[in-house]
Amino acid sequence: xxxLWQKLLRISPAIAFWLFLAGALTAQEVEVQWCGSVGxxxxxxxxxxxxxxxxxxxxxxxxxxxxxxxxxxxxxxLGQVTNVSQLRDVQPSDWAYTALRSLIERYGIxxxxxxxxxxxxxxxxxxxFAAGLRQALDQIQLLIARGRDVPPTDLATxxxxxxxxxxxxxxxxxxxxxxxxxTRELELxxxxxxxxxxxxxxxxAAGIVSEDxxxxxxxxxxxxxxxxSFTGQDVLITRLQAEGLRRLERRTGTPxxxxxxxxxxxxxxxxxxxxxxxxxxxxxxxxxxxxxGDADDFTDTINPYLDGDGASGAVSRFATRAPIYYLVxxxxxxxxxxxxxxxxxxxxxxxxxxxxxxxxNGLFDGAYGALAQVTYKPSDRATIGLTYVNxxxxxxQVGSQDTNLVNQLDLPVVTNSFGIAxxxxxxxxxxxxxxxxxxxxxxxDEGDANLWxxxxxxxxxxxxxxxxxxxxxxxxxxxxxxxSDSLKNLGIDDPSxxxxxEAFYQYQLTDNITITPGIIWLTAPDHNSDNDDTFIxxxxxxxxx
Length: 545
Prior knowledge:
Layout: H1 2-11, H2 13-20, E1 32-34, E2 41-43, E3 46-47, H3 61-70, E4 79-80, H4 97-107, E5 111-112, H5 126-145, H6 152-164, H7 166-189, E6 195-209, E7 214-228, E8 235-243, H8 249-252, E9 270-280, E10 284-294, E11 307-308, E12 312-313, H9 317-320, E13 329-338, E14 343-351, E15 368-379, E16 382-393, H10 404-409, E17 413-427, E18 430-443, E19 447-461, E20 469-483, H11 485-489, E21 500-508, E22 513-522, E23 534-544
Antiparallel strand pairs: 1-2, 2-3, 4-5, 6-7, 6-23, 7-8, 8-9, 9-10, 10-13, 11-12, 13-14, 14-15, 15-16, 16-17, 17-18, 18-19, 19-20, 20-21, 21-22, 22-23
């Protein structure tokens, strides 16, 4: 083999380097690019590990090619070089300078890294060289077909190399044929060229235990998500949902401790959410929600790991995200803009009954929530957010669910809410966070009230196994701390303080199945010490497909 390279260099240094760099030619069957002289070929922009393929590796080479395709990114692709001076690490004094210049001027096949370097110091395997040789043969055939003259010495060199690498070329051809067949099969069986279908089923069991009450329920929440992209950067989300587990407040008499995956009613399959997200430039994302949009569609809820929208993370609504975010839901518009790498601004307006044309409803004549949030990320591991929400509802709605005040008064209320939240990842397996909020509520024609809430959270990702998650939450759900006498006369009063204590452990059974047992302890439910402590236990099984 060593003598062969000596002969090549004596015949034509340019041809020798051209063969080394042949993988940079436009791919006809396998996209292969050369990343440096005496270096590495890049398959779909990703450099192969520099080692020989052994019998202990995967027996399905096509699978490896598919993985390489999936990892491809335009950001890693090499740029075409039109002049050797564009390569910052190649100097006229280099021994390969003349050969490289010849490659560009004679064949126009040389490429470099995005940072305009050549990096010609690595070794390569026979399989990598065979891939480049395959492309060189294709390029020679293309030049001949176009009537271009190819020097006989070049053809002789290619013939000699083809004989030398006949086995590797045969294996490469087999890989290409298998990959082509797999690609055609995927094209024939794919759901859609623009749409991906994802499914999610939650099967949940819940038990409520207090001194005088015991009840166990079993139900589900089923979702089918259709995600359609027209440009590759936008997404149209259509979510079909059916609910079969009613809210626990019907039994507990309080919205405190409500599970994150329960529903207001049993329902057949219906369009639960329809929204379109698209970018404006590189720093701005816009969301248009036709119905059932949420604050987390256009803003960061600053609760990593715990906010899984009921399917993962915390088991209660209160622990999933701060209550202030539940004040914004419906149809409308949201904008998320990155001011810099560390600062982000979110603005949104969602109407609860935006599609209802009757008086007192619609986009601007009914219930709404308007949110503004500034999110600051001083590092990759720390996030802090300041949130303001102005909302109007035709009932009292503070927190994750309607409170007893809603059911008693059934009067319109205007709220102004202020919240602060933070999350800090101490290390990859220890994340602390929390939030606090204050709300002023004006019940029209009746009086005013003030409410507070707070929480401290702890998340332990990958505890015991990759994909597992343990979580602990201690907090106080929204509590009326001050109210006018007129509201007190109506029975609007929280004489005590109820604590929300929650623990759960999410176990990753398989890539598609998680099982999460959890328990919630409410002291003095409904902020009334006359009520017995309540325990809510649940086992949530989430299946994704």
